[in-house]
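@channel sequence for tomorrow's demo:
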Amino acid sequence: MNLPPAGRPAEDLLAEITRLKEHDLPVRGGQVTAYVYDTGRAAVHDAATRAYLEMLEVNCLDPTAFPSVVEMERQVVGAVSDLLGGGHGIFTSGGTESIMLAVKAARDRAARDRPNLVLPVTAHPAFHKAAHYLGVEVKAVPVDLETYKVRPADVAAAMDERTVLVVVSAPSYPQGVIDPIEEVAALAEAAGVPCHVDACVGGWLLPWLREAGAAVPAFDLSVPGVTSLSCDLHKFGYAPKGASVLLFADPAMRRKAYFASAAWPGYTIINATVQSSRSAGPLGGAWATLQALGREGYVELGRATLEATRRLRDGLAAIPGLRVLGEPESSLVAFTGADVDVFVLADEARARGWFLQPQLSYAGIPANLHITVTGVTLSGVEAMLKVIAESADAARERGPAVLPDGLVELVAGIDLDAIDDATFAELSASVGVDLRPGSGQPEMAVVNAVLDALPPASREAVLVRFLSVIYGG
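structure tokens (generated this afternoon):
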């Protein structure tokens, strides 16, 4: 983009934004079953937007300069603490930052050489990202391939004298099941190792599902041995993006997450989060959303979500060739196909206006499609099931994605660091996947089929190059 010679009026800018968003997935209505969370209540979203804008220019860097930040954060963190077993918290920009701070606190508390963390293969990749940045080894353990939950005995076997943190999920994102938290936390406590519960998805959902009648096991800081917990408010709290809370059972552990530096002659540096300067807009939006919905609002959304999830699971079971993976204990549902290429099914659903999130096979878990059920889903669940059934029929008729002979071996054998982005883009286009600017949205079945056939390290290398080509420059 070239900077314009003179400033442009706001009307022009907003019109251009509308044009730029023309091919975006819709963020309201429930037809996008990942990435966005919709209550179906316009007034709640409007209140959050207005509060977000009111706090937009307030800087969270120095709470002594902006006491509104302190009071809002106390209220938001306090609400999460009250719901999830107490604790002392930090408001962060999202689950990844919450997880990174939890890993940092555990690493700094232990102060061990070559620290490691133990987690299930279903744990969120944010733990791998945190470990990569913080110099911590990841020891991943398998899950049971019927329940998709980690086995406590496997966790116990993986822990050693260098383990600084054990991780469990409530629920794990891929199949929406809750790990055996009480058993794993007890093992960790006996070994003197902190235990983190990743409740980024479930923290602000599971209590409301329980109140609506779901059988939800204990998972929060009230469980002996659980030392920290992450809970995203921009998921089932329905706040604008950029809102998560990290809770610690012990305030001394929370202090290990902080960063301070006095080794320079400038202003005082003390950060509760990875970021320094950051807008208070997300905090204002989260505060307003919690206030606008209140306890009754979340209970009602919990009931609607629970009913929509039940209808979805029953409906998927009635579609020939489809199978739900495991027994979801939240509102995350994943399904695979016996005689249907799920990646082709996803393309067919997208052509009909619905986005279903593909998940690659890994550690014995088959390729599948993931659906996040939100407060708005109940009003459209029958329409969703109709589209899935139609898409399954169409995918069955089309057959699986066809890969050119030798393509997977070619991609696996390429030294991607030895070719530039233009060459990679040409290679992609040669197999029908044109990622260059202006080429439109490609069908993703071939891309996903190639990725699914590659080992994880090769998948990661290819994904990095895809991202580099998409952004260009």
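heads up for whoever presents: The chain has a mean pLDDT of 94.
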